[in-house]
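Dock adenosine-5'-diphosphate; give full complex structure.
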Amino acid sequence: MTEKGKLIVISGPSGAGKSTVVNRAIQGRDDMCFSTSVTTRAPRPGEVDGKDYFFIDEERFQEMVENGELLEHARYVAHSYGTPKAFVEKQMAAGFNVILDIEVQGARQVKERSPESVLIFILPPSMEELRRRLENRGTDSAEVIDARLRRAREELKEASIYDYIIVNDKLDEAAAEFAAILKAEHCRYAHRRHLLETF
Ligand code: ADP
Ligand code: 5GP
């Protein structure tokens, strides 16, 4: 791979199905990778340190912010989250498209820093379905689910900074839309103009 990879930002209300859609869409592809964020929240049952997140304390988080080790960072429902910069830069330089699953404040920072990044917002079919999915997932208390739903309503108001919206109603269709966006981005003039030089 010689071309520089793209930065793909995925946001959307917690429970909209971001991980589910992206995992389905990138199955069998060898040009994509996920960025693993750092967070100060506690691991959920089954989450693995270094895979789902790097779980760190607030002190280490602040140190990373001060050292400029994070590409972006934000507070979300009483915890800090951030994207380690070194990994993303290394993978992009090696030609991988790097997926960031981050919330809206972080997405805004990425767009300001790298305007060519691709921002995708994933919507659930409705707020009722979103609540059902969070309840069925069974990973959050009723209180946390309420906080996440309130935050979801705020995030929807900021969706105008995104390049694309995917509605995750039927999983196969949502995954196909994600794949179509990647394909379209790959065909952009800016991404392919170097090909003209070979003629
Ligand atoms: P997010 O990453 O946005 O927080 P998840 O991918 O964890 O969301 O999905 C939240 C829950 O909704 C999971 O239990 C998942 O299996 C379920 N889910 C995801 N997509 C769909 C879909 N299209 N239809 C029904 N349930 C879905
Ligand atoms: P969760 O606690 O459900 O794993 O994530 C909560 C929210 O934090 C989700 O919207 C997720 O996209 C976002 N998030 C996860 N990692 C990061 C990160 O590194 N930066 C930012 N800004 N948001 C993140």
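Observed: The beta strands are 7-11, 32-34, 38-39, 54-55, 70-76, 79-84, 97-101, 118-123, 164-167.
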